[in-house]
């Protein structure tokens, strides 16, 4: 499909598929907030065969306590793949100081798809489109847990 909101497009739908991949398209979940990035795959759960977690910004990842291997793709500031770690085993660390973000994929995803970089770029674009087109919801102010202040004069 066409990139979202291209000239004259009426739909903001983005398709992250690749012409090189006969199976379903890659879907990335974007982790931007501090807590989403800190939780990583622990907060997201196990990835499906066509799913990935895009952690932005990030320069290093670990698999301590994860229990299964994952592929790691380090992405530069312009979206270029800088480094790929295939099947990073549990209780290991990988980093790339020049990276701007990291994509975590199921183990052997990159080796089994020779054109994974093209589908990764399309999935990154689709993930950004999904977050850009979600309706903005105002943050509700939190209610104070403190009781209301008393008037020292006894009047209300």
Describe it.
With 156 residues, this protein is of the alpha+beta class. The chain has helices spanning 34-44, 109-112, 116-132, and strands at residues 27-31, 51-55, 60-62, 70-75, 81-88, 93-95, 101-106. Helices cover 21% and strands 23% of the residues. The strands form 2 sheets. The protein has a 5-stranded mixed sheet with strand order 1-2-7-4-5. The longest helix is centred in the C-terminal third of the chain and has 17 residues, at 116-132. The protein is elongated. The termini are far apart.
Task: Write down the overall mean pLDDT.
Answer: 79
Largest sheet: 5 strands, mixed
* Number of distinct helices: 3
Number of strands: 7
What best-fitting shape do the alpha-carbon axes yield? Answer: elongated
Oligomer status: single chain
Given as residue ranges, the uncertain stretches (5+ residues, pLDDT < 50) are 1-22, 135-139
Strand-residue proportion: 15-25%
Structural class by helix and strand composition:
alpha+beta
**Strand line-up in the sheet with most strands:** 1-2-7-4-5
Helix content estimate: 10-25%
What distance separates the N and C termini? Answer: 63 Å
Question: Helices and strands, in N-to-C order?
Answer: EHEEEEEEHH
Radius of gyration: 21 Å
């Amino acid at each position: 499909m066409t990139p979202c909101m291209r000239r004259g497009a009426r739909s903001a739908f983005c398709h992250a598929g690749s012409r090189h991949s006969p199976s379903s398209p890659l879907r990335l979940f974007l982790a931007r907030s501090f807590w989403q990035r800190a939780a990583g795959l622990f907060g997201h759960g196990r990835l499906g065969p066509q799913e990935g977690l895009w952690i932005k910004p990030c320069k290093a990842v670990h698999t301590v306590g994860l229990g299964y291997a994952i592929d790691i793709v380090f992405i530069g500031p312009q979206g270029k793949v800088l480094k790929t770690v295939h099947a990073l085993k549990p209780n290991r660390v990988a980093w790339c100081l020049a990276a701007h973000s990291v994509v975590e994929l199921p183990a052997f995803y990159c080796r089994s798809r020779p054109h994974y970089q093209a589908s990764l770029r399309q999935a990154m674009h689709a993930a950004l489109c999904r977050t850009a087109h979600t309706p903005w919801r105002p943050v509700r102010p939190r209610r104070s847990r403190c009781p209301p202040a008393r008037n020292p004069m006894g009047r209300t």
